[in-house]
Structure formats: structure tokens, C-alpha cells
Amino acid sequence: MAKELLPVATALAIVREHARPLPPRRVGLLDALGLPLAEDVAADADSPPFDKALMDGYAVRAADGPGERGVIEDVPAGTVPTRTVGPGEATRIMTGAMLPAGADAVVPFEKTEGDGPRVRLLNPPRPGDNLLPRGREMRAGEVLFHAGRRLRPQDLGLLATVGHAEPLVVPRPVVHVVSTGDEVVPWDATPGPGQIRNSNGPMLVAQVRRAGGVGHFVGLAPDDPAGLERDVRRGLEADVLVLSGGVSAGKRDLVPEVLERLGVRAMFHKVALKPGKPLLFGDLARDGTPTLVFGLPGNPVSSFVCFELFVRPALAALAGRDEGPRVRLLPLAEGVNHRSDRPTYHPAVLDGPAVRLVPWFGSADLRGLGAADALAVLPAGDHRLEAGSPVEVLPLEEDASA
Ligand code: AMP
Ligand code: MG
After folding, report:
1. DSSP secondary structure string, 63-74?
2. Mutate which of 177, 184, 274 for ligand 1 pocket (most atoms within 8 A of beta carbon)
3. pLDDT digit string, tens, across residues 29-64
4. Cβ within 8 Å of residue 13, ≥6 positions away
5. What is the arrangement of strands in the sheet containing 390-395, beginning at the earlier edge strand?
6. Which residue among 69, 294, 304, 337 is least crowded, i.e. fewest CB within 10 A of its CB?
């Protein structure tokens, strides 16, 4: 039985193979934070577009040396000088304003005396003092960003500077979350006998958002074919559909057959891991890009672990991000006895340079998971792992939402 299960690495390779970057589209600058550019962007003009004063003061000819000048004009920022500065002359100028013709230096007010029609420079000015020559920051046509750049706040400022108001980017994947189960009630309801609240809905939407996706909760589907089909249909109108529950081998586990009926092609069903064995992955051909479908097992920790292991990397790939290796090898802080026919992803905490397992009562125990900030992978078998034994660790707190 265990032999037929797909190893995690193989399952992950299949997911990655089907998770291709979404087609790029243009978005406004206010919506572009964290998204990778899908084009090179060049400067539209020289910057600064003119020789620019960097201080409030007087624009002068350095060759005239220190001493008196006659003030011929006032140039606040945003206005254009009308007069050429001749020998013995100066223009009063404000920070950011255009240097008048003839001038080649700015002397700040603090280095002068008098503020009427005449002014005295205390020191000899040097050419280029307190001004930024045209094109010093960038030249028109110069490439500022290459495709692939993940946009940060200061990048958005620079895109605004060069008038690139709608950059071409790889968008965030839109993910629909559907919970299933006749015994599951909304998270704001009081469960009757035999019922439980829907913990997976909000948890999975939050996992989607933390992984950089746009998460929507679509609904709570019943364990009957018609009701489930209705919600799955709605769920499929997204880049990714994440279902929880109804994917095991029970009579009321209808997710695999409903997906099949709606044309979803299952790539695998059942993986060698604990918790999370019944995981199903498939896709539905749509015009353009397919919808990826994950049927996660209903137990909350199983759902959570399968998301982190398989859905998160898929979302990163759709979003055009290369996550790189997430698993680290760390020594166990304490020895453990472990017995399982499958590799176990055990809630754990990063403890200095080591990893420590937290008490955990299995796939329904969200309380135990809540104490964890990592998953430690305990290999299949019946054995003791001594303190210091290296184990693979998946940290959980990375945030790709921006
Ligand atoms: P299933 O995968 O549907 O067989 O569900 C496995 C276990 O997870 C059952 O005990 C369910 O009651 C529970 N479960 C399923 N869906 C949820 C959910 N959305 N929130 C909390 N528990 C769930
Ligand atoms: Mg169920």
C-alpha cells in the first residue's frame, strides 16, 4: 500500500512542472508593489532635465571670484529664469530651480551677506558648486530596470518619475478557497452536536495572501454531488482552486469524482507524507492558462502542511518568483522516538541553531501547530533520532505578500 504513494519530491516536481508564470499585464503603480516586471524600463528624459540648484542661494559665475554681485532676478522652484547672468551679476534661486544661463555655481544664503539688490559672497565659488548638471542621475533612453525586477516602494517612485504609470508585470495569482463537509459550519456560527467550525477557510485564505496570492473564500460546500458541483464550478473561475476535505476514500468524499465530472485532469492523488496523504492535484484547461486544482485533506493541520509544501511553491511560480530552496538541514535540540510508515512533517520551533519538536496530537491539532514556526521532517521508519541528528526543516514564517 505505502509503496504506491508518490514521494513528496516527485509530487512537488509535478506541481512545479504545471505552475507556469501567469501572462503579464499592465497595472497601475498603486497596485504594483512586490510584482515582478515583465519588461525593461528606460528613462523617458534626462534627469534632472536641466542644470538644477541644490541649495537656496545665488546663481553666479565662479570666474568672477568672491565679493559683490548685483542681483538681477528671483527664480523660485517651478519657474524659468529669463535673464542671463553676466559678469558681476547674480540670480536669487531656490532649491530645485533651473540654473540661469551664464551661471555655473550656486552660493547658499548662509555664505553671503545682504539680501537686497546687492549681495556679497564670503568665499570664492567653484564651478559646479551646489548644482546637479542635466542628466547626471539618468539619461533619456538609459535602462533603469530589467525584466524580472520585483518592484519595491522606491522603484515605484522612480517609475513615477519617468512617467511609467502602468508597468507590465506578472500579476498575483487569484486563488479561490472552498471548504467542504456536512459537519462543518461557518466560523462565526455555534456548532450543534457533531458539528465543527470551519477553521480551514480563513486559514487557507491567509496562507494564500502570505504566499503572495489574492485569496477569496468562495464558500462551504455540502457533501452532496449537486451542491459540491455548484461551489466547485464557482471555485474554478480563478488561477487556482484550493479545496479542503472530501478527498479521502470515504463514501461522502466526493471531491475527486466531482472534479473529474467538471473536466479536471488529476495529475496525482495520494502522496507519501503525514499529515496529508490524500492530497489531490490536477488542472482544468481554460483559454490561455489552466486553472490549477488542489484537493487538500480536511484535517486542519493536513490542509496547512499540504498548502505550505505544494500550493505555496505553485503560487510563487505562477507569480514569476523563484523561491529557491526553502528546506534547511538543522540538528535536533532533543532526541525523539519516531514511528511512521511515511515521512512526517512535525510542528517544531527554530531554537537558535537547532530545531525542537513541539507537543502535537496529530492532524486535527491546530493548537499544537500554533506553537510552531517550522515543520521538521522525520523520515519514515521505526527509529530513535538522537539529539544533534540533522533533520530537514521547513520554516513557516516567510511572507511574500508584498
Ligand atoms: P475529510 O478530509 O473531509 O475526511 O475531513 C477530515 C477531518 O477534517 C474531519 O474530521 C473533518 O470534520 C475535518 N474537517 C474537514 N473540513 C474542515 C474544515 N474546513 N475545518 C475544520 N475541520 C475540517
Ligand atoms: Mg469531509
Report:
1. GG-SEEEEEEEE
2. 184
3. 999 999 999 999 999 999 999 999 999 999 999 999
4. none
5. 328-331, 390-395, 374-378, 344-351, 354-357
6. 337
